[in-house]
Design a protein that fits this description.
The chain is of the alpha/beta class. The chain has a domain at 32-206 and 277-321 and 353-373: Class I glutamine amidotransferase (GATase) domain (Rossmann fold). The chain is 33% helix and 18% strand. It has helices spanning 2-21, 25-28, 44-55, 79-85, 114-123, 152-166, 191-199, 208-212, 218-221, 258-263, 341-344, 347-373, and strands at 35-40, 64-71, 93-98, 124-129, 185-189, 204-205, 247-253, 272-275, 280-281, 288-294, 300-305, 311-314, 329-330, 339-340. It has a ten-stranded mixed β-sheet with strand order 3-2-1-4-5-12-11-10-7-8, with helices on both faces. A two-stranded antiparallel sheet has the order 6-9. Strand 4, helix 6 and strand 5 (185-189) form a beta-alpha-beta unit. The longest helix is centred in the last third of the chain and has 27 residues, at 347-373. The chain is globular and about 55 Å long. Residues 6-19 have low confidence and may be disordered.
Length: 374
């Protein structure tokens, strides 16, 4: 019995230490000879997405490692991510947890997270922010009218990190970290764009159908033009397991040169993109410029920072792997024929998406080059 007790205690100690090791990159795994990119909200899905994009040469980077950063107060169970990165083929991925919890009144200034944000910034060349649920409106000084907030601590962490990186209207005396490395790479998809805007002092439209188009329910919303639908509302009124949650719609570029010059996109193309959101940018945050909108101009689809050229984000989802290969077939409406995301895109649309990832790759390389030159 004594031996059994010792064995159990040893196993508990082993797994607790191994788990701790898997979440404390800065203390245990940081190497000065390696180049790192950060991933906010490093869920299994987000880690696998980056890995697939790398494996298929869509994200064109070599000799880069990735550090997932997250708050332990988030709703997600990161034991799943810890288990994933233990696999030999995932050796390029690491995790860094943050234990402190902040209130909404603490996030737009120096706080207990500040030293960690600075250290993560110093050891990395950039960061990705991914999609997710609604941000609590209190952080952009609105009452909650249409937002469904399921992970408030994730938002507080990511908003504070982005504020530390870029600064915002909330605190004019704060000096952004990017003033030290202006070529540092920052991007976001969907929620990532919204978080960037709110962190910089902007606001959000809490529900596009209700506030932009004056629609009261899913039935009314589905009467809008297809390019005014930014997610699929059919699943709210009919049961069909093949209905996608997403919507494909076109976007159009503004007069800003980001897409024609930086992405080298066909200036005449209004590319088809994949989206799944009901919120969007309302008032722009500090130093953010609109680079693309919906066809009717009512929804901001892409932004770039006025001062930092490698800071940009999109409201849509170019990171979804099924845009680049044949995958499961879906329907938008109940009467549609199932079709894959890959088939929905034209060759020109696919080229647009790949060029966007080349732009991301080049921005990261530019950040790395500047970092090594110091």
């Amino acid at each position: 019995m004594k031996n059994t007790g010792k064995l159990i205690l040893s196993l508990i100690l082993f797994f607790s230490l191994h788990t701790a090791f898997g979440q404390n990159f800065l203390d245990k795994e940081l190497s000065p000879n390696k180049t790192y990119i950060l991933l906010a909200h490093p869920t299994v899905s987000n880690i696998q997405t980056i890995n697939l994009l790398l494996s298929n040469n869509i994200l064109q980077l070599r000799d880069i490692e990735f550090v997932g950063v997250y708050s332990t107060a988030e709703a997600y169970d990161y034991n799943q991510s810890i288990a994933l990165i233990k696999k030999p083929e995932m050796s390029k991925f690491h995790l860094q947890k943050v234990d402190e919890v902040m209130s909404s009144g603490q996030i737009y200034r120096q706080n207990e997270w500040t030293p960690l944000f600075k250290k993560l910034f110093d050891i990395s060349a950039g960061i990705f922010f991914f999609g997710g649920p609604d941000i609590q409106p209190e952080v952009y000084k609105q009452e909650n009218r249409y937002s469904v907030v399921t992970d408030p601590n994730r938002h507080l962490f990511e908003l504070s990190f982005l504020f530390h990186l870029l600064g915002g209207y909330q605190n004019s005396e704060y000096i952004p970290l990017l003033q030290q490395k202006p070529t540092y790479f920052v991007t976001g998809f969907c929620l990532g764009l919204q978080t960037m805007n709110v962190a910089a002092g902007g606001t959000l439209t809490q529900d596009i159908p209700a506030q932009t188009y004056n629609k009261k329910n899913a039935e009314e919303t589905l009467k809008l033009k297809k390019d005014q639908l930014h997610r699929n509302y059919w699943p709210e009124i009919t049961k069909d397991t093949l209905l996608m949650a997403n919507s494909f719609h076109q976007i159009t570029y503004t007069a800003h040169p980001f897409f024609p010059e930086k992405v080298k996109a066909d200036s005449k193309l209004q590319p088809l993109v994949l989206s799944s959101h009901h919120q969007s940018i309302d008032e722009l945050g500090k130093n953010l410029i609109v680079t693309a909108t919906s066809l009717d101009g009512d929804v901001i689809e892409a932004i770039q920072h006025r001062l930092y050229e490698n800071v940009f984000a999109v409201q849509f989802h170019p990171e979804v792997p099924d845009l680049y290969k044949e995958g499961k077939k879906w329907k938008f409406a109940p009467t549609d024929t199932p079709v894959s995301f890959f088939e929905i895109l034209s060759p020109a649309d696919r080229e647009f998406h790949r060029k966007y990832w080349v732009t991301i790759s080049n921005a990261i390389k530019a950040s790395i080059k500047a970092q090594k030159a110091k």
